[in-house]
Design brief:
Elements: E1 9-16, E2 19-23, E3 26-31, E4 36-43, E5 46-51, E6 54-59, E7 61-66, E8 72-79, E9 85-88, E10 90-95, E11 100-105, H1 108-120, H2 126-142, H3 172-179, E12 183-186, E13 197-198, H4 208-212, E14 234-240, H5 241-252, H6 259-264, H7 286-293, E15 300-305, E16 308-314, E17 322-323, H8 324-332, H9 337-344, E18 349-352, H10 353-361
Parallel strand pairs: 13-17
Antiparallel strand pairs: 1-4, 1-8, 2-3, 2-7, 4-5, 5-6, 7-10, 8-9, 10-11, 12-18, 14-16, 15-16
Helix pairs in contact: 1-2, 1-3, 2-3, 2-8, 2-9
Length: 362
């Protein structure tokens, strides 16, 4: 948790239900209403513990365990001073190489609920939350152990999946997670899929190899008519011609002194998604342009205007897999979660994860 920061000091305080405090092998009672503990980083392998204002000592590991299921704590980093979060289930705190390693020992469904709200926001349709829950569960189970060498399974960043709180604003997310309990997406050969998603595809999903140089047989580009009139379907950005040309010339040796190439350098038409700027022979990946100029997507066309290059873009994100705004629109129109899932992943199966594994073992 708080993976982007080197935690030096954090408090864990009462939110809902009591928690037992175990430091190494010593029981220090419970966190009750109006109570908190404070954990501080000492060095790798060592943290200090306070309960309220009472110093309890230095320990290898502090474990905070719920005394009944369904409870939660408030986590408030003090150094650095960050916005507090709320999470369910249990916690472990140890001394990492540069700060506290805080691990949430969380039930899969509670984790998925937190991810769905972090990734999908509040106020959406139930069927959208269901399909997002299936996607998030599939990813979590496929990549369980991604950070095994660091002592935990998944981080709270988009590197894995955004997990910034337990569900707070949309209780229907818990209903969606329960309704799809253990449902995941698998390929026809019985493997969990890469359940990619993005905010908006701009009307056409993207082939994985255009982004990651990787073919995925169950993901292919298609026209998506559900997202084209939504919030993030189009965008525009102006960049100075000097900055644009300098980037192309200095990084990719674009032949600016060739008169024909010079006339083309700021003019690009992309009616359908492609991988390279102007032509593959120049070797300029659109994903590199997106990263350098902080663009919303690689799906853009451009033209010169005065001293600027005007980019007219479509979509937000890499464009591979499920388009969130398209899925939200489908849910509003009455499509069920499994219909939405099969629209964006037509070559996959929706199955019960644990049932499938039971039958394969027996």
């Amino acid at each position: 948790m708080f993976r982007d920061n080197n935690l030096q000091r954090i408090t864990l305080s009462y939110n809902d239900g009591s928690y037992s405090i175990i430091a190494d092998t010593t029981d220090f009672g419970s966190i009750l209403p109006n109570e908190f503990i404070e954990v501080s980083f000492i060095k790798k392998g060592s943290v200090s513990l306070k309960k309220g204002t009472e110093e309890l000592g230095q320990f290898t590991k502090v474990t905070v365990i719920q005394n009944q299921t369904g409870t939660s704590l408030i986590l408030a980093p003090k150094s650095p001073n960050l916005k507090q979060r709320k999470y369910k289930d249990d916690f472990e705190l140890t001394g990492g190489s540069k700060g506290i390693t805080l691990v949430n020992l969380v039930d899969v469904d509670n984790y998925v609920s937190g991810v769905v709200e972090s990734e999908g926001g509040s106020g959406r349709q139930l069927e959208y939350y269901k399909v997002q829950a299936v996607i998030s569960r599939t990813y979590a189970l496929k990549y369980l152990g991604k950070h095994k060498k660091e002592g935990f399974d998944l981080c709270d960043r988009t590197h894995c999946q955004a997990y910034y709180n337990m569900v707070r604003y949309s209780p229907e997310i818990d209903s969606a997670v329960i309704a799809t309990h253990d449902v995941v997406m698998e390929s026809y050969d019985g493997k969990l899929i890469d359940a990619y998603f993005h905010a908006n595809c701009g009307g056409q999903t993207c082939e994985p190899h255009l982004i990651w140089n990787e073919e995925i047989d169950y993901l292919s580009t298609f026209r998506d008519t559900f997202c084209i009139y939504t919030k993030q379907a189009t965008w525009e950005k102006r960049i100075s011609q000097k900055d644009w040309v300098d980037f192309l010339v200095l990084k990719y040796s674009y032949p600016i002194y060739d008169s024909l190439c010079a006339s083309l350098v700021c003019t690009f038409d992309q009616p359908e998604r492609t991988a390279f700027y102007l032509h593959p022979m120049f070797g300029i990946p659109l994903r590199d342009i997106r990263d350098h100029f902080d663009l919303k997507s690689t799906f853009f066309s451009c033209h010169p205007e005065g001293e600027d290059v005007v980019l007219q873009g479509r979509g937000f994100g890499h464009g591979v897999g499920l388009c969130q705004e398209g899925a939200m629109k489908m849910a509003k129109l009455g499509y069920t979660y499994d219909q939405i899932a099969r629209y964006y992943f037509p070559k996959v199966l929706l199955v019960n994860y644990f049932d499938q594994r039971y039958f394969r073992l027996n």
